[in-house]
Amino acid sequence: MDRLLWFRKPRLLNLLAGWRDLTALVALRASILATTSHLADYADGIADQAESVAFDYAFLLGELQQISEAQTLERAHYYIERLARSIATVRTTAINDINLNRWKEYDDINTDSLWMIDRRDGSGVHSAGYWGNFVPQIPNQLMRRYTKQGDWVIDTFAGSGTTLIEAQRLGRNVLGVELQPHMVEYANQAVEREPNPLAIVARSVHGDCTTINWQALLADYGQCHVQLAIMHPPYFDIINFSDDERDLSNAPSVEDFLGQMAAAVAQVKPVLQRGRHLAVIIGDKYMHGEWVALGFRTMEVVQQQGFQLKSIIVKNFEDTTGKRHQKELWRYRALVGGFYIFKHEYIFLFRKK
Asked: Which residue from 79, 214, 250, 322 has the least number of CB within 10 angstroms?
């Protein structure tokens, strides 16, 4: 938001009630014009107080303009009532905190199946130094759409802690599992450097996501279920993350990789609350002159375990660490080899039936 103003709810609601009582469009428009000319003077609310409400200045100005430009008094009254509802009541769904009475203000939340993210969020302790970690915007979007503040999230491939950091910022509790002990330490140290005003649980633990007992881990925090699971596995052997034979990047074959993914999903399923969501972020690979549809094959593995596919999101990526300084070389290779350079990955969204 460009300019956030706090208003006292009673004062705004009284103003709108007065406009509803007007019986002529001319009088209504004149009153709105007089108000908008000194709108900031009405901002006498106190931040975060129950009797105050916040609006972006430009957004509220647009709402008032829409009322003023209505062609009929009936339509103007409809817009007034809608604005009054957005001030007086909060309407959310069971799975997130998005206020549907103010849905137009969430223009930073993606609802399309193509995500074009030009630059990764590097704020705070986020770092792109860990080869293969996903951009923070992915878990941020997923948690805002599919969890409420205070909900629980698990990340089966915690890595450098991207999901943990975003969860703590958003007020979601999160547990991650990571095969590499030094990355567990790295992620936990990163999270500890982030502010935690809501005393959120955000921890990475050492373990194998194909065998980990999520029930026992959650029980340590008095929990039985989680509301969102995020899985961002290695894209088979594109990047070698460790020498551990349990590492999915060391799977002997695509079939072995898919088998390990199936095992990881099987561990998640019992603790994911019914009706809640699992997100798998994965890309394809090129092997022996053939495009391997690793993403869709992984999607099928999850579906075979009884999950309902809700969406397939295609996300762009521009400069990967491995190709950042080799653009011309890869372009030459593509021309010679007759293939196309990977510029996308998938976010498969599933719902537990």
From this structure: 322
- Alpha helices (H) in 21-151, listed in sequence order: 25-36, 57-68, 73-88, 137-146
pLDDT tens for residues 197-238? 999 999 999 999 999 999 999 999 999 999 999 999 987 656
- Measured CA to CA, the distance from residue 140 to residue 126 in angstroms comes to 13
Cβ-contact 73, 25 below 8 angstroms: yes
d(CA 134, CA 117): 11
Q: From CA 281, how far away is CA 301, in angstroms rounded?
A: 14
The continuous run of DSSP H or E covering 283 comes out as: none
- Say if CB 159 and CB 187 are below 8 A apart: yes
Closest to 29 measured CA to CA, from 65, 72, 68? 68
Read off the pTM. 0.90
- The answer on pLDDT for 321 being more than 60 is no
Q: Which amino acid is residue 244, in one-letter code?
A: D
**For residues 248-271, average pLDDT:** 93
Strands (E), 232-341: 272-282, 285-287, 290-292, 307-316
Taking the C-alpha atoms of residue 42 and residue 28, their distance in angstroms, rounded to an integer, is 18
Torsion of CA 250, 252, 254, 260, to 10 degrees: -60
Contacts of 262 (CB under 8 A, 6+ apart): 301, 304, 305
In angstroms, the CA 240 to CA 278 distance is: 25
d(CA 44, CA 54): 11
pLDDT at 258 over 90: yes
Gap between the Cα atoms of 321 and 318, Å rounded? 10
**pLDDT, tens digit (0-9, with 9 covering 90-100), for 105-159:** 999 999 999 999 988 887 878 876 655 568 999 999 999 999 999 999 999 999 9
Q: What is the mean pLDDT of the chain?
A: 91
Helix-strand-coil split of the chain, %, nearest 5: 40, 20, 40
